[in-house]
Design brief:
- Helix content is about 40%, strand content about 25%.
- It is α/β, with parallel strands linked by helices.
- The strands form two sheets. A five-stranded mixed sheet has the order 6-5-4-7-8. The protein has a three-stranded antiparallel sheet with strand order 1-2-3, with no helix packed on it.
- A hairpin with a 4-residue loop joins strand 5 and strand 6.
- Helix 1 runs antiparallel to helix 2 and helix 1 packs parallel to helix 6.
- It is elongated.
Length: about 200
């Protein structure tokens, strides 16, 4: 449901504001919100899956509280393992992005109370998977989990995922800005055209 909200926010906001401006119910200044909707959508996609109070229970289940409620991930049925690294002032926020066969996606790092990370649990679950499991593991996630050799091995237990080159990660804020600005201005112009404003 959160993914649907994130994908539908820009077009729904565009149409709704255009109709409201045409009806004379709101100022055409509201059309400027079209520039912010892609950024809001990206933030919703990321932060809605970010988990805290991460708790393992039973053998292969991992439960985490998220903005949209508690999510339970089946480590024995992982389909994708990625890694998100966001550099801050003097530190890096380093998290694993886990997706299971049920479509549950959780972005996690520490276990509840900050006592240890989830690496050991994820690593064990990946190594216990059958040879033909086909779990997609990014190069950066494999590096964090110490599974580089296993991912490179010629079997279908773990499949190498997409990997961004180091220079791309370093230039990512500028590259995203170069993409976001034209999209934002395009939505702004489209909003004014749809609203019939000069």
């Amino acid at each position: 449901m959160t993914d649907w909200f994130a994908w539908l926010l820009p077009p729904v906001y565009l149409v709704a504001t255009a109709l409201l401006v045409q009806a004379g119910l709101v100022s055409d200044a509201l059309v400027f919100g079209n520039m912010a909707t892609p950024l809001i959508s990206v933030l919703v996609l990321f932060y809605a899956s970010t988990g805290w109070h991460v708790t393992p229970y039973e053998k292969d289940l991992l439960s985490a509280r998220t903005l949209t409620g508690r999510r339970t991930l089946d480590l024995a049925r992982l389909t994708k393992v990625g890694r998100s690294e966001v550099a801050g002032q003097g530190s890096t926020d380093d998290r694993l992005i886990l997706t299971d066969a049920h479509g549950v996606r959780v972005i996690v790092n520490k276990l509840r109370g900050g006592n240890g990370d989830v690496d050991r649990l994820v690593r064990r679950a990946l190594l216990e998977r059958p040879i033909d499991a086909g779990v997609v593991v990014s190069a950066r996630a494999a590096e964090r989990l110490g599974l580089e050799d296993e991912v490179r091995r010629a079997n279908d237990k773990m499949v190498p995922g997409r990997s961004l080159r180091g220079w791309v990660v370093g230039w990512m804020p500028i590259l995203l800005t170069l993409v976001y600005l034209p999209v934002g201005f395009g939505l702004l112009i489209l909003g004014y055209l749809a609203a019939g404003s000069p």
